Model the fold of this input.
Amino acid sequence: MTASMQALEYLEQQSGATLIKLYRQPSSALAIFRRMLPHLAKNIVMAMLYMTKPFSDADLLAWIRPDALVEKDQAMSVLERLHIISKVHDPPPAPTAYQLSDKFAKSLRQALTGGGNHRSFGVPCSTPDPDKIDVENLDKFARQQWEAILYYMVGSAGGMQMGLSQGASISDGTKMLLEMGNFVERKGGRPIITQTGFSFLLQEANTQVWSLLIVYLESADNLQMDKVDVLSFLFTLGSLELGQDYSTANLTATQLQMLDDLSDFGIVYRRDNQAKRFYPTRLATTLTSDAGALLTSNSTLRSALSPTGSGNDKGYIIVETNYRLYAYTSSILQIAVLALFTRLHTRFPNLVSGKLTKESIQRAINLGITADQVISYLTAHAHPQMAKNTPVMPPTVVDQIRLWQIEGDRMKATTGFLIKEFGTQTEYDDTWKYADSLGVLVWKNDIKRLLFVSRIEQLSTYLAGKKSKARAA
Amino acid sequence: MVKAVKDASFNVKDYETVADMVLPGVLIQCDASIKAIINKIDSQYHEFILEDLDDEAVIIKESKLAELKIKLKEALKDTVREAEESGSD
Done:
């Protein structure tokens, strides 16, 4: 799941009132528009942005190619769930029509054309900072803080108890947050990484930041913080410029409190808690953009977290056909990640060696790491010498890792919804085809007319539509 | 397909009918042999299975997934012998 999808899913769960409040701020409207909407939805919003009257469904259909109706349904469904577009409820026989939410449209127009004194894009400091921090040091700070969080999570696993000799330590608040997000579990006073935690670890940095921030948002209510305030501030941060210092003068109390927490994550930098200015780091400025985050995609633990922090994004792992593994690294974090699924036995100054064993792989699988995750991690971080091979990983090793997984995990579990009691064969056929085209169909049984789908929202709208049509007929 | 979204005259009753058709849960897909073990576990405790689908699929309660996995592992321990690791490096 990508960062934007995750944030989108969170937003979709919010009430209409929360969202409308959020849309009052131009930077939020812009960020949601830019980063979270599907392409077709963006086009529809742009087309409707300066329309004064509701836009009829028939006219909208004229723009959509007949083979893209599914995409259109998806786009409209996202827009409606985000309360960006609403149906106009004119009494029949008026045709169905849509209109943009006033607040959203106004904010987006303001964001695109400028104007207003909403200050939602941050207020740069008017006076120069006597000891200004440069971009390089900001990156270093962000990396150090974020690495400390990741290390806290893995450092606990795989029986590797190496002293935290490098990097920063993380605050109790962050530790609690990791537990609340179920990334780690505390067992006997020591944090143990969970399944969610490991998936988190393998995501790219941008997605990780959002995952953690969503947990933060969920906890905001308990901390007497206003959710809208928190979200707005995150979207503001996403629109700030790297290397620029911003004034804390116009921030709300909630947002000032957030600055403390965010600087613990490495998202903003402040000299101390009383500082009148703050710098967004690369983790902040890439929150709502597609630009490569501090830690470029798919190389999370590789480039960004290399011990020197020099952006060394070369691979370092060699796997032989006899399951032996050599990793040219001295990063404690990288070693700790390897230790999750490898039996390591020797460590040299620039190299660790070990072996992939049935026991080590199955231990990882028990933690919730999948065989595919292990394989893709090893492939993504393959040493240049090994990366010359096609395929990169020895096929015997890949097959064996998969077999070890099947052996340990004899059933496939999927959370979702069973749909049963279809009235007619046609209703069943249409529904499974529709579910399949949405990509949510997991399982079906034609004889018993049963469907299992991973998501239900769009389907229940679809089914209710079918029912009401059947009733009318 | 399009008509479904186009049709604004949904009524609550239609949604209720649809809600009756939908059962949230976890789909378990496995071999017939594992399915037999799951059925046996359920026959002892009667609290896992929501809907028995066929020989290779069953719906269980989401809250019971972790417990079922543990029970299944225990059951398999008795029937499947693990080969010893050679241990040489």
The domain at 3-87 of chain B is CATH 3.30.70.1220 (Alpha-Beta Plaits). The first strand of chain B starts at residue 22 and ends at 30.
